[in-house]
Amino acid sequence: MSTAIGLSTPVLAPLLPVTGTFALPFSAYFTLLSYRVVHYRLQDECYLGDNSSKTGDLNNKLYLATRCHQNFVENVPLGLILAALAELNGGDRKTITTALSALLVFRILHADAGLINGIGIGRPVGYWGTLATIGGLAGYAAYLVKGYWGL
């Protein structure tokens, strides 16, 4: 008969159910953004770079798709890390779910109702909403460990 040494699986899992749940929608949207870049690369026969010689041209779909993809990659990982930190430190699951839902909506607004069309109302709403959500998550994660700093 064998005995398990150390912590068993039921003790460890699941550590991040909320953040783990949001892995699918964020990854699905990332895949869509990536696909768009490839689609416009093939369409423009521009296999490297973003054809940015036409950057001022709001009809340059490759450049706009590249920027949507890059903006997502710049912001979402930080949001997920902050949510995971809050969740690991005992944060309220509804609060974290609301924040990650808002982050996903703001990223979609920024790209699909804003940047992909050059200029759209979704771009500033998505930008400021993303900053507010990331700032809120950072503040919440810090608040959860305030006792560590003697507050």
Helix/strand layout:
Layout: H1 9-12, H2 17-21, H3 23-44, H4 61-88, H5 93-112, H6 122-144
Helix pairs in contact: 3-4, 4-5, 4-6, 5-6
What would you say this structure looks like, in words?
The chain has 151 residues and is mainly α. It has one domain: Four Helix Bundle (Hemerythrin (Met), subunit A) (Up-down Bundle), CATH 1.20.120. It has 6 helices and no strands. It has helices at 9-12, 17-21, 23-44, 61-88, 93-112, 122-144. Helix 4 (61-88) runs antiparallel to helix 5, helix 4 (61-88) packs parallel to helix 6 (122-144) and helix 5 (93-112) packs antiparallel against helix 6 (122-144). The longest helix has 28 residues, at 61-88. It starts with 8 loop residues before the first helix and ends in a 7-residue tail after the last helix. The model has no long low-confidence stretch (mean pLDDT 88).
